[in-house]
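Operator note (shift B, R.M.): manual run for Hydroxyacylglutathione hydrolase requested after the automated queue skipped it. Running by hand, logging everything below so the morning shift can see what happened. Input copied straight from the record, untouched. If output looks odd, do not overwrite the archive copy; leave it for review.
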Amino acid sequence: MEIVPVPAFSDNYIWLVHDETSGETAVVDPGDATPVLAEAERRGWTISQIWNTHWHRDHTGGNLAVKDATGARVSGPLAETIPGRDVDLAEGSEIRLGDHIGRVIEVPGHTLGHIALLFDEERVAFVGDTLFAMGCGRLFEGTPQQMYRSLQRLTELPEDARLFCAHEYTLSNARFAVHAHPADQATAERLAEVEQLRGENRITLPTTVAQERRTNPFVRAKDWEEFARLRIEKDSFRS
Ligand SMILES: [Zn+2]
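Run finished. Output pasted below as returned.
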């Protein structure tokens, strides 16, 4: 399974997922069709599936154009309005790319119907706007309890699982993480790494479960009340 980022808008990543054996390609959260179709064509890949994690326009805005251009089947959360959806996904649903079998978990908080797509054997998870490297999504629809639980579920995956997030927010998240844990060496070291990568305009993703357990203050929060305080503080934090 080959996974390639397609940068879109100012800080989104749309992920192209290709299975060499079957020749199948999926795209996760195509907010904009143009760069996705261009990258797929450049690689000689034909998109046969669209997977959405939640309804926000910067994740679904290109659904119909990609579907029109390729005939791709659209799978997205049952509980949300997803343009062009053919397949309803909910907790326990299965998705497939060639012989790769993924499963759906519900991770409410950023939106109420938000889902994540997990490929256990491949140690891969597409987490949308629920978890970011060293951070998490804003609570637009859900409660702090829901989001805290969602982050715990994602970081209960094996330590080496790679988490593919949908935005490049890592630098500002890392600055907040250092603010939240000023004496923490692993957090400070990661900030330095992220500053270097972003200084060279390089991607900081995917992250791993191990890294998030160590350096993500929202994941490290001991309960939802601590999580809620951090989330409110981050909303007004200026790095
Ligand atoms: Zn979103």
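Quick read of the result: Residues 172 and 238 are 8 Å apart (CA to CA). The pocket of zinc ion is lined by residues 54, 56, 110, 129 (CB under 6 Å).
Leaving this for review. - R.M.
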